[in-house]
Each structure stands twice: as structure tokens, then as C-alpha cells.
Here is the input.
Amino acid sequence: MFDVKKTTEEIIKFIRNYYKENNLKGAVIGISGGKDSAVVAGLFARAIGPENIQGLWMPCHSKENDKKNAYLVAKHFGFNIKEVDLTNIYDNYVDNIKNIYPNIKDENLTDANINIKPRLRTATLYYNAAMLSNIKGGTYIVPGTSNACELYVGYFTKGGDNVSDIMVLGDLSVREVIEIGKYISVPNQVVNKAPDDGLSGLTDEEKLGVKYDDIENVIKGKYVDNDVKEKIMALHKINQHKFKTPMYKRK
Amino acid sequence: MFDVKKTTEEIIKFIRNYYKENNLKGAVIGISGGKDSAVVAGLFARAIGPENIQGLWMPCHSKENDKKNAYLVAKHFGFNIKEVDLTNIYDNYVDNIKNIYPNIKDENLTDANINIKPRLRTATLYYNAAMLSNIKGGTYIVPGTSNACELYVGYFTKGGDNVSDIMVLGDLSVREVIEIGKYISVPNQVVNKAPDDGLSGLTDEEKLGVKYDDIENVIKGKYVDNDVKEKIMALHKINQHKFKTPMYKRK
Here is the structure.
């Protein structure tokens, strides 16, 4: 049985202890308008105070509605949010590549284009964290927003959204993250929104081809239809390389 | 006693096995003009053939001499190299931030500016790998270039040059990498060059404040002056967070 109150309090204590032990000051959090970043921001606002959080809305050909939700989250939890528009940087980046490979077609760039966005965003979070650490006279770090279901099937961009300094949702299923979101009163339209990457135009579940509740059941050893289980295990297996880089070791 | 011939052959076999097991085709390698990337490229050229290697020279306010050395390495090992100039993207990136924080001074951005470069480079390597995988009909991966001494003291950018798909120098000291470089005939002016990051204007050893040979001796449990050893252990300890991200786990 998931005890939402107890877990929320434990996470807040976990964050406070880590900040105290390492003498840290603040956090830079990418606010996407989705529930994971909203829950992380809400937990950090309680743990270290909203005045020590810098939210970043980092559009990159993004939807206007996501922006509205991102600013709503910041207002609700009382932290500052700034827009760092990556659209031009992204466009220049892609144009640059097209100049170097003159025969390249747009269809050859689909996969490359999807993954460059989270990498630019992570670089931007760390850029702002380094800058704020310098200005504010105390270290700012970058919390990650991945949950246990995403981690289990490797649903993240290597060198992108899997790079962070502290993870608070990594042991929680999507369902449990939503419960915490409701408990800390993340706005309804954010916590109930079907999760999507804001990149491909599909929801996460459409893109993955499996449901988050089924992933949770696999993780917890509960009953899952055999075909679905095989699909989830295949994703789990094929993405293991994202967790551990093979390295030559002398005999 | 370091057996350069045996180690070189083992690494080449390690690469070949990994490519075979995972049905891979090629490699995208950032060629900096320094010895680590030259040795990695030379080993991969032998293991998978130079026709399956795409070298990238990614200047970002870089020195002309480094470019000469990068192209010399590519020519020597017979693989194609392309220039992806990140200078404009970097400049736009920094200008973008300055517009958002109008009171920011250049001195507040020093640390942030040093680390953004390797992150842009890593994103570029993966971008090209995804694109080439699409065009060439087989998977291209990104080899890492970190050696054991750099790893021991955490001398790399998190989310930058520590992100890779396969590591071949991670168990070798700087001295051993140089031995391999000489053995596979990396051009003299590259293999004998004092390693620097091409970013800060200092050599690595100046920046770290310790010598790579001393780091090797600490790793191998050999005698090192006490003050030097303390300095190395302090670097080792303070950078452990780059290896493992702390994560909340329910009790």
C-alpha cells in the first residue's frame, strides 16, 4: 500500500539532508508543463524554499499550452521562472548540419532532431546552475525528473534528461507520482495531463507502445498479460546500454 | 609491466566483439588534435576499418594548430573528418543568456562557459551518430576518450565528455595511452603534446594542480609524496557525485 503522506515527507527530508550535508543552496529545474517536473518543483519548494528555486521554461518549437501550464506551476509554488527559448539555437544547429551534409534529407534527421532537444535543455540547466552558483554565493544543482517506470524501460535521452545531480522520483511509479502531485496540490490540468515528451507529438504511452500501469506491474512482479510483459522486457533489455557504458579492462 | 602489444590487441578484439554482438556499423569520434582522441580513433580504425569512422573536428573558439593536428590524425589513419563549427552556436547561446539576465557580468559566466563546450560537442557527436545510422543503414555509436587518470580525479564534464557508448582507455593511465599511441604510430606532434582541454588556456596538469604520473602512482598504490597524495584524494572525493547520482528510495 502506497503511503503518500509518509513518502512525501521522506522525500522532503531526503532533499534537506542532501543540501545540508553538501552545503548546497539552490536548484535549477526545467519546468515543462508536465506533471513530473511540477511534482519535483513542488517537493523542492517545500524542502529548500521557493526563493532558492529557479524554474526554466525552455521552449524549442513548443506548444503555447505547455507554457501556460509551466508558468501556472511556478506561480502555484511561488518560485521564479524564466524563459530560455532554444528554438533559434536548435534551428541554427540543424541548418549548420545541413550545410555540412548537403545531400541530407529532413527524413534522415528525424531521430537526431528528437534527441538534440533534451540535450540542449540539460546543457542549459547546468549553464544556469553554474551561473547562479557564481552570482548567489552558494551551489545550485540540477534535480532530475525521471520516474521508476521511465527508468525501467530506458525512456530518456542519454546525455539529456538522464543527467542530473539528485533524483527524487526514480523509485516511484507514474501512478505514485500522480498521487504525490495531488497530495501537494499540483494544479489539476497539470497532474491529470497525459504525459508526452512535447517533442514527437505523441503521448509517452503511444510512443512506447505500452502503458505505465503495466510497467509498474512488471516492476512489482504483479500479473501482466504475457505479450505486454514481453514488450516491456524487450524495452528494458535494449536500453540497458544507457545505464552502463561497456569499458575495456585489462586482464 | 605494461605489455603495449598485448593490450593494443586486446582492445581491438574488445571493440570487434562489441560491434559483432550488438550488430553495429560505425563510430563518430570527436577529434580534438590531442592524443586521447587520436589513440581512440587509431584503435577503432584498426578494429572496424577507417571507412566506418566519421571524425568530427568541432571548433568552438579553438586554436588553428589543434585543427592541423586533428586533420593530420584523420589523414594518418585514413578516415573521413568533417568540421562542425560550434563557435556561432556557442556565441548565440551566451548572448541568449545575457539577454535573459541583463545584469550578468562576463566574470559570472566563466565556469558556465567552460562546461557548455563539451556538452555541445557531445550533443553533436550523438546528432551525427543518429543521422549516419539512418543514412548508412547500420548503427553508429560514440566512443569515449577518457583515460583512467582523468576518471580517477573526475576530470571531465558531467553530461559532456563522460557520456559515451563504449570506453577503451578508461583502464589505462596517461603514460600507457602514450605508449599505445607510439605503438600504433600516432603522429609525433600529437602523441607528445602536453594534454590541455583547448578551453581554458591551461594544460590539464596546470588546471588540476597535480601530475598525471602521480595520479597513476596513487591508483597503483605506489609511493607518492604525502601532500600530492592528499590533493589527488581530495579531487577524487569531491568529484564522486559525477559518477553516481543520489536517488531517494523508499524504506
